[in-house]
Amino acid sequence: MALELAIILPTLNESGNLAPLMEKIDASLGDTGWEVLIVDDDSEDGTADEARALALKDPRIRVIQRIGRRGLASAAIEGFCATAAPFVAVMDADHQHDPALLADMLTELKGGDVQVCVASRFVEGASTSDWNQPERERLSGLANKAARWITGVNLTDPMSGYFMLNTATARTLAPRLSGIGFKILLDLLATCDTPMKVKEFPLKFAARREGESKLDRAILFDFLAGLYDKSLGRVIPTRFALFGTVGALGVVVHLAVLYVLLVIAGEGFAFSQAIAALSAMTFNFWFNNWLTYRDRRLKHWNEFLRGWASFCITCSIGALANVAVASLLEAQGLLWIAAALAGILIGSVWNYALSSRFVWGRF
Fold first, then answer.
1. Which of 89, 73, 161, 151 has the alpha carbon at shortest distance from 121?
2. CA atoms of 361 and 363, how far apart (whole Å)
3. What number of other Cβ atoms are within 10 A of residue 21's Cβ?
4. By C-alpha distance, which of 173, 284, 288, 181 is closest to 225?
5. Of 24, 160, 296, 302, which has the maximum CB count within 10 A?
6. Which residues does 200 contact at the CB level (< 8 Å), separation at least 6?
7. How many helices (H) and strands (E) does the chain have?
């Protein structure tokens, strides 16, 4: 039977969820032409091995194990480019998304009247009673209002992680997608030059079967980063903008620690400045690890300590570059404030480039 639909499952520590989910998908789609692409971010619980074991029994299951690459959005993009199926769906592997909707969504798309089918948590007939996360529900409601404004598409749930569209459309948009964070549907809708025709299907959003959520409290910043990327990201790269914002907060931390040690505690300037600089670099490393590079986050203590040491070394070299450039420009007659800003810019670009490669890039 000809291949019609590819179902992309971005996974992180979902080994126990895969087998029962494959049974549900098979029950929904039967012997129609479908395949499942499990795109795993090198899970520690053996998700990729479990997926390969299932694939040995069912050739409709395929596995992409990613080393050094993380993030739901980028996993979906890799799935778009790895299938020959004319239609593609993205859904979670944690059993919160009901595979029973797949058949109706595919039928609707094949009819040609709509371009995207979305499983909505908030359309009439949907339910989130099993979710039991009122804080996340309120956050989703606010995010949906902003998402509708930026995409131009009237949806009840543009932040949904469960949707289906024509694969050719997804691949056409792929080079322009940011691939940052978790909201790939928002990325697709905002990137398309003309608003896409969408139909929503009521989703009974269930509780996770087992495993850990891929989302955390940084999801709000992740959403804001996505909005920024679609509005100003072509002028200043989104990750660099986040890195610079964290750096600005680090200046506040530096000055606060310096004030406490120098003015309140009465310590010497050299000692106070050194402790303030180390405190600011530690703050910047922690915040960047939590926010700017959350898709590459260093979690284990050995990775974290090694990353912190590399970040401090990188920033120390960046500080020297900052001073050297600013001093040279000031000596050439440039106004001191302009020279200082030029030094800050050079130092920031240096820190960003080296940190991206040597702190978070290797992992």
1. 161
2. 5
3. 24
4. 181
5. 160
6. 117, 118, 119, 120, 123, 155, 156, 157
7. 12, 7
- Tell me the per-residue pLDDT of 198-232, one tens digit each, with 9 for 90 and over: 999 998 876 655 555 454 455 556 666 666 676 66
Please give the structure tokens belonging to residue 2: 């000809």
Give the side-chain half-sphere CA count within 13 A for 174.
Answer: 16
Cα 217 from Cα 210, distance rounded (Å) = 20
Using only the alpha carbons of the chain, give its radius of gyration.
24
The Cα 119–Cα 201 span in angstroms is 5
CA 355, CA 193: separation in Å to the nearest integer? 34
Can you give the length of the chain in residues? 363
| Coil vs helix vs strand at 46 | coil
Tokens describing residue 53: 């074991």
pLDDT at 353: 86
- What's the rounded Cα separation, in Å, for the pair 293 and 287? 9
Q: How far is the C-alpha of 95 from the C-alpha of 161, rounded, in Å?
A: 12
Separation of CA 199 from chain center:
25
Q: For 348-359, give the secondary structure using H, E and C.
A: HHHHHHHHHHHH
Per-residue pLDDT of 158-190, as tens digits, reads: 778 899 999 999 999 998 887 765 578 888 888
